[in-house]
Structures are given as structure tokens and as C-alpha cells.
Write a structure and sequence with these properties.
single chain, 260 residues, six-stranded parallel β-sheet, two-stranded antiparallel ribbon, 11 helices, 46% helix
């Protein structure tokens, strides 16, 4: 998959955002067209300008062959659960398309992270966790069941939290439509974990191996971590059939590329 996140064109100026989103999508579509058996694209959108984003989404899907869209965990400080974005989710749900979420690199807006040299090592998985929880607490995975949400980095800390989230729901967020442990299993997660097998095993146990797809984080991760991003899955301690799903079939199912 090709995606511009985290350099998404989320800009205050609509004309600038539209121009950058269009250029990014055309560039990636050209590459995907040259290698149709190898690449697909997640379209960039000129958010927070929803009307313009819907126009670019339509163009990307119908003219450029996109199979989903890529956004960051926040959009100019807005949560992805902001009602502003509901028309976008309605359209993705109608199409049965992917919403791919990648950290924005803002350290979850916490100076305790950004001012202490932890923006990516700690901040990124925190952003993953918070963004997905915003969607879950707003009930969006159940409201838009055909929109296929794909979160980065095994969902951050989510594989460790399902029981805690459920237990705290009654007194902290009682209006949540369904238990987080149930809602979290509606999403998909990439396997970027810096080849740490216990993290992969925890995610498979919490969400189901059928909800995990291979991720490499290239070009942000290279060298040994990149080379082992695929190989470590089979040797992680998962059952062979689970490793096979993650390596061979889950992504095709997620992207709508599987044979009937």
C-alpha cells in the first residue's frame, strides 16, 4: 500500500490542501498503474475541508483506482470522532472502503512527550491508542460497519487494555454504545511492532489473528527492522495458520481483492 501519511495534506488553507492531495494521489496512482500487481493506494484527502475531501475521494476511487483513504490520528487538532467528518465516513461506509489511520507525529499534543524527545518512540503509539478510542467511544465502528478502519502499530497500547476499558466504561464513559473489547475487534491493525513478538502475540490474542495485516513502516523503518518485518511473523510463536492469515490472506480480504 502507498500512503502519504503522516505527511497528509491536512492544511488550514483549502486551495493548498486540495492541490497537495491531488498531486500526491496522481503521483501514487501513476506508480500503481506501472506495477498493478504490486501496489494499491490509500488516497490523501484535503481535510478538514470535508466537501473538497469528498470530491477528491470520488476522483481517487473512480479515476485513480484507490481502495481506501489515509488520514492522521488528528486533523489540525480535531479528533477523528469530530462530527465534522461524519459525511466522509458515510461515503466510505457506502463504498465498503478502508480508512487507514497513522500517527500525526504530534506526541498526542502532550509537552511531556514532545519536549522530552519521545515524539515517535512513545508519542506515536499513544496517538494510535487515543485515536482508536475516540472512534470507539463515539460508537463509529458500529455505526459504519462497512467502513474498514485500519490502525497502525497494532493499535498502540490497545492489545493490553480490553479488560481495563470494559471495566472502566460504566463510571467513565457510560454512554458508549458497545464494550470497547467488542468494538476493537471490528477494526484491523498492521503488524508494525519493531519485530517484537510478544506485542504481535498479544494483538492476535486480543483482536484475533484475522484482524492483523503485515506492516513494515517503510521508509521510516529500514535496515534490519525492515528486513525482519515479514520474517518475524512466522517465528513469533503464533500458530502456523494464524501466521498464514497475517502473511497471505487478511490484507486481500481487507482491501476487497480476494477471489469470491
Amino acid at each position: 500500500m502507498l500512503s502519504v501519511a503522516p505527511q497528509s495534506p491536512h492544511l488550514a488553507g483549502e486551495s493548498d490542501a486540495v492541490a497537495l492531495a491531488g498531486a500526491a494521489n496522481e503521483s501514487y496512482a501513476e506508480l500503481a498503474a506501472r506495477f498493478p500487481e504490486r501496489f494499491r493506494i490509500f488516497a490523501a484527502l484535503p481535510l478538514p475541508h470535508v466537501d473538497a475531501a469528498l470530491r477528491e475521494l470520488t476522483r481517487a476511487f473512480e479515476d485513480l483506482g484507490a481502495v481506501g483513504v489515509g488520514v492522521t490520528t488528528t486533523v489540525l487538532g480535531r479528533t477523528l470522532a469530530d462530527p465534522l467528518f461524519r459525511p466522509l465516513y458515510e461515503e466510505l461506509d457506502r463504498r465498503g472502503a478502508v480508512l487507514y489511520i497513522h500517527p500525526a507525529g504530534e506526541g498526542a499534543a502532550s509537552p511531556l512527550i514532545t519536549e522530552h524527545d519521545m515524539t515517535w518512540m512513545v508519542g506515536a503509539p499513544v496517538e494510535d491508542t487515543v485515536a482508536v478510542m475516540h472512534l470507539i467511544l463515539a460508537g463509529l465502528p458500529a455505526r459504519y460497519p462497512r467502513m474498514r478502519v485500519l490502525a497502525s502499530h497494532l493499535g498502540g497500547a490497545l492489545p493490553l487494555l480490553p479488560r481495563r476499558l470494559d471495566d472502566h466504561l460504566a463510571f467513565e464513559s457510560p454512554e458508549t454504545p458497545e464494550r470497547p473489547s467488542v468494538a476493537a475487534r471490528r477494526l484491523w491493525y498492521d503488524t508494525v511492532s519493531h519485530v517484537h513478538p510478544p506485542a504481535l502475540v498479544a494483538a492476535a490474542a486480543s483482536f484475533g489473528a484475522d484482524r492483523l495485516v503485515v506492516g513494515t513502516d517503510f521508509p521510516y523503518e529500514d535496515g534490519e527492522v525492515f528486513l525482519r518485518a515479514v520474517d518475524h511473523i512466522a517465528g513469533s510463536g503464533l500458530a502456523p495458520e494464524e501466521a498464514t492469515m497475517i502473511l497471505d490472506t487478511n490484507a486481500a480480504d481487507l482491501l476487497g481483492l480476494s477471489a469470491p
